[in-house]
Amino acid sequence: MINAVLTIDDVASANTPAIVDYLNSNGITALLFAVGENVEKYYDNAIYALKNGMILGNHSYSHPAFSKLSVEEAVEDIEKNEVVLDRLYKDAGVERKYRPFRFPYGDKGGANKDALQAFLRDKGFNKLKDTQLPYAWWKEKGLDKDIDTLWTFDFAEYNIRQGSGFTEDDVWKRINNMDPAYGAALLKEGNSHFLLLHAHDETEELVPKYYKKFIDYLIEKGVLFSKPEFI
Ligand SMILES: [Zn+2]
């Protein structure tokens, strides 16, 4: 069996409702990491995601590289998005049970890493349950101790841009790579994943319904999607 929790970053976007509808038609509850600025821009779409069963987490207000910020600036940015998300949940009429957090670019703050982890812990942020992950490297890197949520497989589809040289084919290669240099092989029997996809309208323009293409294939390959759980 291959198990996966789907996470989608940089919500909200114009294509968020279509993604949510697709996920619900396949019985998938995803953890959507929301950027405050994007939520403010596509507020109704973020409300739609909450009303339709998705869980929204904090992915910062302005999507900075946290290693370039002071601890104070970092905390300010995270808390600014907490205000946005508290209001969003309230406006959607949905109880906010969990407060997961993901750093943009997986940048945990460089020299400020320990201080930021302590902040997340003290503020009661929730960790996505990772005890099922079978990878030695997850523990060797201390990811089992961190409060924020990284990923085990990145589709990297956000690199598909005009002139980037990265194409849909490269995503398919990643999906089918059984021996990746980083992270874990997506389709290796027995693996368990936190999958990383993005809600980007730029990707939608170049590869319509990219999320359906990739996730339909995983479902066909027997990947079982679990509802996000927190510890
Ligand atoms: Zn992001």
Description:
- With 231 residues, the protein is α/β, with parallel strands linked by helices.
- The chain has nine helices and six strands; from the N terminus they run βαβααβαααβαβααβ.
- The protein has one domain (2-225): TIM Barrel, CATH 3.20.20.
- Helix content is 38%, strand content 13%.
- Strands 1, 2, 3, 4, 5 and 6 form a six-stranded parallel sheet that branches.
- Strand 4, helix 7 and strand 5 (192-198) form a beta-alpha-beta unit.
- Helix 3 packs across helix 4 (71-92).
- The mean pLDDT is 97.
Largest sheet: 6 strands, parallel
Instruction: Please tally the β strands and state the result.
Output: 6
State the fourth-level CATH superfamily. Answer: Glycoside hydrolase/deacetylase
Write down the CATH topology. TIM Barrel
What are the bound molecules? zinc ion
Give the topology, please:
Elements: E1 2-11, H1 16-25, E2 31-34, H2 36-41, H3 43-51, E3 55-58, H4 71-92, H5 113-122, H6 136-140, E4 153-154, H7 168-176, E5 192-198, H8 201-206, H9 210-220, E6 223-225
Parallel strand pairs: 1-2, 1-5, 1-6, 2-3, 4-5
This protein binds zinc ion.
Residues 9-10, 59, 63, 104 line the site of zinc ion (ZN).
Keywords:
six-stranded parallel beta sheet; alpha/beta; 231 residues; binds zinc ion; single chain; 6 strands; TIM Barrel
What's this, in brief?
Helices cover 38% and strands 13% of the residues. It is an alpha/beta fold.
